[in-house]
């Protein structure tokens, strides 16, 4: 009499589920945003040198590993904070530019918006402290990447309208960017920022008017 053997079929190996990359990316973005908010407040409050990574993670209520997962070091964190401050300032200027149709008025509107926001402590962080912490070359790269597209678009409209020759518009862009940068720094450093803002706004408008009259 034959007895059927109980054959145990081997279980199929199931593949390990892939880690939810999308969720990881979203979590990382949330963590980065929280860290930037906290770091900006601390850098303004205490300065770069007096703020430690421990201070940031403690206030943000995250682990040190979570911070280093997003930012390689404190300087990289500071660079992102500075870039975010400049981006916000440029975003405000872009809204003011978009509200005008004439390119000369757009130029004035952008300048006025930047000077109006330059008295805040966060602007001092980005325009006064950042060149020292990051080095002038690295900081200028941040500033140029953030500001050049908006200024360039306005100058392109001036050239396209025939108000300025293209080469002159290009050179004027460098002059204006330098003047507006120095003006914003002067407001940020001033003990009387509102008075400095009004004076500098008048000076820059006079400069723009001279170019427009030519």
**Share of residues in helices:** over 70%
CATH C-level class of the largest domain is Mainly Alpha
Average pLDDT rating: 86
Q: Could you describe the largest sheet, including whether it forms a barrel?
A: none
Tally the helices.
9
Which descriptor suits the 3D outline? elongated
- What is the CA-CA span between the terminal residues? 114 Å
User: How many DSSP-defined strands?
Assistant: 0
CATH topology of the largest domain: Tetracycline Repressor, domain 2
Description:
There is one protein chain. The chain has 9 helices and no strands. The N terminus is likely disordered. It folds into 2 domains: 48 residues, Arc Repressor Mutant, subunit A (Orthogonal Bundle); 136 residues, Tetracycline Repressor, domain 2. It starts with 20 loop residues before the first helix and ends with a helix. 77% of the residues lie in helices and 0% in strands. It is an all-alpha fold and 214 residues long.
Give keywords.
214 residues, mainly alpha, Arc Repressor Mutant, subunit A, Tetracycline Repressor, domain 2, 2 domains, 77% helix, 0% strand, elongated, disordered N terminus
Chart the SSEs and their pairings.
Layout: H1 21-46, H2 53-60, H3 64-70, H4 74-98, H5 103-117, H6 121-134, H7 136-160, H8 166-189, H9 193-213
Helix pairs in contact: 1-2, 1-3, 1-4, 1-6, 4-5, 4-6, 4-7, 5-7, 5-8, 5-9, 6-7, 6-8, 7-8, 8-9
């Amino acid at each position: 009499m034959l007895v059927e053997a109980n054959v145990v079929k081997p279980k199929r190996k199931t593949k390990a589920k892939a880690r939810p990359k999308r969720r990881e990316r979203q979590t990382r973005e949330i963590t980065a945003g929280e860290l930037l908010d906290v770091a900006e407040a601390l850098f303004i409050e205490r300065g770069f040198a007096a703020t430690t990574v421990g201070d940031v993670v403690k206030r943000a209520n995250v682990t040190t590993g979570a911070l280093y997962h997003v930012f390689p070091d404190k300087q990289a964190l500071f660079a992102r904070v500075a870039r975010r401050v400049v981006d916000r300032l440029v975003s405000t200027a872009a809204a003011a530019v978009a509200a005008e149709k004439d390119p000369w008025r757009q130029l004035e509107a952008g300048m006025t918006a930047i000077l109006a926001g330059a008295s805040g402590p966060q602007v001092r962080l980005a325009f006064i402290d950042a060149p020292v912490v990051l080095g002038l070359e690295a900081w200028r790269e941040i500033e140029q990447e953030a500001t050049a597209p908006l200024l360039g678009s306005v100058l392109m409209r001036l050239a396209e309208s025939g108000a300025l020759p293209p080469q002159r518009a290009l050179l004027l862009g460098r002059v204006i960017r330098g003047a507006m940068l120095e003006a914003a720094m002067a407001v940020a450093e001033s003990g009387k920022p509102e008075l400095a803002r009004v004076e500098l706004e008048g000076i820059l408008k006079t400069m723009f008017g001279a170019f427009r009259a030519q």
